[in-house]
Every structure is written in structure tokens, then in C-alpha cells.
Design a protein that fits this description.
This protein is of the alpha+beta class. It has 13 helices and twelve strands. It has three domains: 93 residues, Alpha-Beta Plaits, CATH 3.30.70; 100 residues, GIY-YIG endonuclease (3-Layer(aba) Sandwich), CATH 3.40.1440; 196 residues, no CATH class.
């Protein structure tokens, strides 16, 4: 005999004293679902001799609600109680269905194939549709039928329909998954197509979620492999961006736009963005009137933002698919997170096996070209021309020795 342990709560809101609680005969308790409850549609009232004295606790109300569909309570025992809670154990058994018709094979049209399956049935003169996905549609539908026959199906709508009109149930595969997909691509395909069929249901929907990303063993293996690959690419790109920030910082210093004792090529942007110096005694000199100041400042900011985006993508990839809590009790993942994940994969796929060491040596010209083009949207043509020529232009003439030293250095733009 099966059982469920639960708590009865809310007695103090019903002004139920400890004396009534102690004298309560648990065998006379009846459970009545209260779907119209504004605070919790899964709420279940506890009634004894017509007196509503409490509720099943929220965590167990959902479980008991599923049990009450297709089962009958045989006995109830009280474990312990206090003024705020009564802990009980409810024993139950499946409802016998003497007049229910039997089927030799209700899944005759379902094959062992990966795809989207449909369960259609009639309840209260209305047609209902349930859509699901599986790498073996027949096996999954067999599980549905077994649970429905036992009265233990988690979907209350399906279970209620089966209990009242099992002969109306029809099973079929509505879309087959392509056979040439990898484990992860297959599961993402099934996830997207399941959402499509649920969203475009022709009648009343029996689904409680928009879709489910089912991560099979091979899909999880693909995610792990992709996580390692993408993380490596991101780390290399971060190193490249940091190197490019450093070289652009050198341009600021070589052109005399910023100079001071504490200024380094790696901290130029920090100084440019600083608005409060506090107790700092040394402040760098910044020539904001320089003809290239705005262009170069925007370019440096662009590179810094790209580093931040890389770090955000890295954190997302490391956490996927456990990004955020489930949208509801039944959802497993936010569909937006799947789209974000696919977008990240597509973004970094084009970089291939980028290596910072090669970029620094000027061997990976393709990557350098992509980087140059990204800067062209920020830099003006005149700035690009100056950078390519390596001219240390200032608004005011700089010290001649500084100009001569700066000309000896390899122009930043030519490091690629």
C-alpha cells in the first residue's frame, strides 16, 4: 500500500485550538481540492465532520493532488502535532476500473523513432492535445499508458481524461527528428519543435510547460566538449583583446595624449575614466583637446567592453544549462537561455582555433582583419591613417627627444 507524509497547517487562521487538534480523529479527515484559491490553485482543504480546520502544506499539496486523481484514501495516521502543524501519513490505493475497456495495443501507430508525439483525447466533450518529445517515441508513450493505467500520471489533465474516457485516447508521431544530428543538436531540435507544437495546439492544451530540454548522455557529453572548446577560444580572445588594449594604451602615451608618473599602457583607460582622485597626490596630464582623443578613447572603451562581454559569455557557458531557477514547478529551463547558448556557439564558431601567441606574432592575419574592421566603426578615417603611418601627432609640439623615441617604436596598428 502506498503512502504520502504531509503536514496540515493554517489552524491558527481558523482559530483551531490545541484541544481540538488533540481530539481530532484523523480517520474522519477528507481532502477537498480548492482550485479557485487565489493564493495557491493547488491548495487542498482539510475537513473533518464538515468543519474546515486547515490546509495541506504547499509543498505536499501538489503531490497529494496527483494522488487523489485515480486513488482512494484507505487510512490516515497522525504522527505528531503542535498548535501550528499536524504531521500525518495518508495511505491510499488505486481506484478499480471494472468497466474500463482494455486495449491490445493503443500505440499501434507509434514506432521506435526520435521525434514529437501527440496524445489526443476527449474530456467533457472537448478535444485536448498533449505534445511530447523523445528519442524513442514508442517507449515514451508506453510509459504514459502504464502510468495512466496505474493512476499515477503526473499530468492531472491526462489522468482525468483517461479515468473518464480512455477509449478516446489516440497516439501518433507528428514530426520525425532528422537522423544525422549530433546528440546535443538532436535534443535542441526536439526542444524547439516541441515548443512549436505546444504553441500551435489546435484545441485545448494538456501541456503544463512550453517545452523541455532533455539532456541525454550524449547531449551532456557534447555540452561538456563544447564548454571546453568555447572556454579555450574565449580565453585566447581575452588575451588578444587585453594585448590590443595595451598597444592602444601605448598609442595614447606615444602621442602625448596622456602622460604622468603612474601612467602605464595597461591602465590608460582607468585614468581616462577617473573623475575623482581622492587623496592621490599624482594626477596624470590628459590632453582632451587632441585631435585623436575622442576616437582613441572610444576605441579603447570598445575593447574594454568586448573583454567584459567575453567574460560574461564565459560565465554563461560554464553554468549552462543550470542558468536560472525553473520558470515554474514543471519547467526545466528558460527557452531564452537556450537561444542565448546557441547564439554564443555561433559567435565563437567562426574563430576556430585562435591562439594569442600567433596573433601577437602577426601570424593570424584573418583575426587581425576582423579586429580592424570592428574598430573602423569607432575610429575616423583620419585617425586610422595616422595610426597606420605611426605619426606621433600632438595638439602642441612635444619634446623633440620624446618624438624621436616614439618614432623608433613599431606602430601599434602594424603589430598585426
Amino acid at each position: 500500500m502506498k503512502s504520502v507524509k504531509l503536514n496540515i497547517v493554517g489552524m491558527r487562521y481558523k482559530n483551531v485550538g490545541i484541544g481540538i487538534i488533540d481530539a481530532l480523529d484523523c480517520e474522519r479527515i477528507t481532502f477537498v481540492p480548492e482550485p479557485e484559491n487565489r493564493n495557491d490553485p493547488n491548495a487542498i482543504k482539510c475537513i473533518s465532520d464538515g468543519f474546515h480546520f486547515g490546509y495541506v502544506d504547499r509543498a505536499n499539496a501538489i503531490i497529494l493532488g496527483r494522488v487523489l486523481v485515480g486513488h482512494t484514501v484507505t487510512s490516515i495516521s497522525k504522527n505528531w502535532s503542535d498548535p501550528n502543524k499536524i504531521k500525518i501519513t495518508v495511505y491510499f490505493k488505486p481506484i478499480e476500473k471494472a468497466n474500463s475497456p482494455t486495449y491490445s495495443d493503443p500505440l499501434i501507430d507509434i514506432g521506435h523513432t526520435a521525434g514529437i508525439y501527440q496524445i489526443k483525447f476527449n474530456s467533457s466533450s472537448d478535444d485536448y492535445f498533449y505534445y511530447g518529445q523523445s528519442i524513442d517515441a514508442r517507449k515514451r508513450c508506453q510509459e504514459h499508458v502504464r502510468n495512466l493505467n496505474q493512476g499515477t500520471h503526473q499530468n492531472v489533465t491526462l489522468q482525468s481524461g483517461w479515468d473518464t474516457n480512455p477509449s478516446s485516447f489516440q497516439f501518433k508521431v507528428v514530426e520525425v527528428c532528422p537522423s544525422d544530428l549530433t546528440g546535443l543538436d538532436r535534443q535542441i531540435f526536439l526542444f524547439k519543435r516541441e515548443m512549436h507544437w505546444i504553441s500551435n495546439c489546435a484545441g485545448y492544451s494538456a501541456n503544463r510547460i512550453k517545452g523541455d530540454l532533455v539532456l541525454t548522455i550524449d547531449a551532456l557529453s557534447d555540452i561538456k566538449s563544447l564548454r571546453e572548446t568555447i572556454t579555450t577560444v574565449i580565453n585566447e580572445l581575452k588575451a588578444c583583446r587585453a594585448y590590443q588594449k595595451e598597444k592602444l594604451g601605448e598609442v595614447f602615451i606615444n602621442l602625448g595624449i596622456i602622460y604622468g608618473e603612474k601612467v602605464r599602457s595597461t591602465n590608460v583607460l582607468t585614468w581616462l575614466n577617473k573623475t575623482r582622485y581622492g587623496m592621490l597626490e599624482i594626477q596624470p596630464k590628459i590632453d582632451e583637446s587632441h585631435m585623436l582623443f575622442n576616437d582613441l578613447h572610444n576605441a579603447l572603451t570598445l575593447l574594454n567592453n568586448q573583454v567584459k562581454e567575453l567574460e560574461a559569455d564565459k560565465r554563461f557557458i560554464a553554468a549552462f544549462p543550470k542558468i536560472t531557477p525553473a520558470l515554474s514547478e514543471y519547467d526545466t529551463i528558460d527557452p531564452k537561455n537556450v537561444e542565448t547558448y546557441l547564439g554564443i556557439l555561433e559567435t565563437y564558431k567562426k574563430y576556430g582555433s585562435i591562439r594569442f601567441a600567433n596573433v601577437k606574432k602577426g601570424k593570424t592575419t584573418g583575426f587581425a582583419i576582423n579586429f580592424d574592421r570592428s574598430l573602423e566603426t569607432t575610429l575616423s578615417k583620419s585617425t586610422i591613417s595616422v595610426l597606420k603611418k605611426g605619426l606621433p601627432i600632438r595638439s602642441e609640439p612635444a619634446d623633440q627627444s620624446q618624438l624621436q623615441n616614439s618614432r623608433k617604436k613599431k606602430p601599434w596598428w602594424n603589430v598585426f
